[in-house]
Amino acid sequence: MGIGFIALIVFILLIIVWTTMLKRSIGEAMIIGFFVTALFGGTNALNMMWDGIVFGATNEVLFAALAFVFMAYVIDKTGIITLLINILNSLLGRVPGGPAHVDTASSTIFGLISGSGSGNAATTGSVTIPWMIKSKWPPALAATVCAGNAGLGIALPPSSSMFILLGFAPIAAIVSEGDLFFALLIGGLYQVFYRVILTFWFVKKHNIQTFKSDDIAPLKKTFIMGWKSLFIFFGILIPLTITIGPFAELLMANPNIGEGAIDSISLLVWVPVLITSISMIIGYKKLPKSFSEWNTFLHGATSKFSVIGVLLLFAFAASENLKQLGLSEDLTSMLATLHLPSWLVIVVVGALIVLVAGPLSGTATLTAIGLVAFTALVSAGVHPTLAVVAILMFASTEGSSPPSSAPIFIASGIAQAEPGKTFSPLIFYYVIPVFLIGVFIAMGILPIPV
User: Fold this and answer.
1) Do 319 and 1 meet the contact criterion of CB atoms below 8 Å apart?
2) Is residue 316 part of a domain?
């Protein structure tokens, strides 16, 4: 057992003990976890600390998380979200759990075109989380649903993670893109079906009611009053159109623009920037007018940054420490030496992928151990196509794997909820069930034609 794997286990156990048994804040736990993982570097500990802090501070997801917190604050203070929710409520307010179903559906659609867990949580959550809270969902539960759905960005084709695995020559030699696309689509739909059932159960468990008929205004009325609020969707559509689809291909083919320029456009950066800008333009009448009013307004926004900023900074810093400690090499070595029954190989491989996808992203996890995991599963008798689908199911837990998955903090930031309160529900309602879906697919219990 290598030092990197030992550090990972200590990191996770420390955070669990600190937050659940000692009842201390997750921010404290993440800071301590960062320093503890660095200490495994011995004489190189100080260099690892510095590299980790630099990595965390320069990670675009840190900016994105803070930007989405500010975005949520602006659309709330300008009244934009209220107008938008009134329209959505007129459409789906009579359906119990309507906003959560919309989050599942929109995460599915966005997952089909983006493959980004963080982007999924950010774009769908910016609308559905405030709507859920308005519908009397507890903020932590709203963040849980959004973060739990974020993994659909990996579980559905054509995700970037799918192409990472197809980029390995041994996998590409025996798994065709067409076969994998169809198989992964079915595997992803198993997850979607589970989430629909889970939402109905959440509605029943938490006694979430539909809005009273008197509270649901006619669509014509809410549309006339709030049609301008629909312009915030351009904050999502503009960067999507520029980076994905026929128009993006046209721009890439233009010699004055090129593929590099389009690829450099980050959805995580531009979605909150554009939505915030559009909201300020539409709701300018409700913005501060004097210096003192702006000071109060900005103070109210920045006070919400501290927890989410500290959490993400030290979460990414700790993940960089684990990388430098050789976590990926340790896991590669462990998987290569497994001599277990086929069902146990599937369980162990899946558990390792889920474990690694917590502090690392899904794409980083698959890059590090995807090929070794595939080799281990195929050697255990799993059909090659099902092996790839199962691996992607396991990796899709990255959005909902505490303690350091970015979608958790993005969703919690939008909901203004304590991230630690989402940890247990995410593990119980999303991580474990999705893990089991991957196991059942690999074992052939959940049928996928191959």
Assistant:
1) no
2) no
Instruction: Indicate whether 133 belongs to any domain.
Output: yes
pLDDT tens digits along 140-173: 999 999 999 887 877 877 666 777 787 777 888 8
> What is the Cα–Cα distance from 426 to 409, expressed in whole angstroms?
12
Q: Domain range for residue 432?
A: 60-308+325-443
- pLDDT of 112 higher than 60: no
H helix runs in 60-214, sequence order: 60-77, 80-92, 98-113, 117-134, 139-150, 152-155, 160-166, 169-172, 177-205
Predicted structure pTM score? 0.67
Q: Answer whether residue 41 is part of any domain.
A: no
The answer to the question of residue 23 being in a domain is no
What's the structural domain count of the chain?
Answer: 1
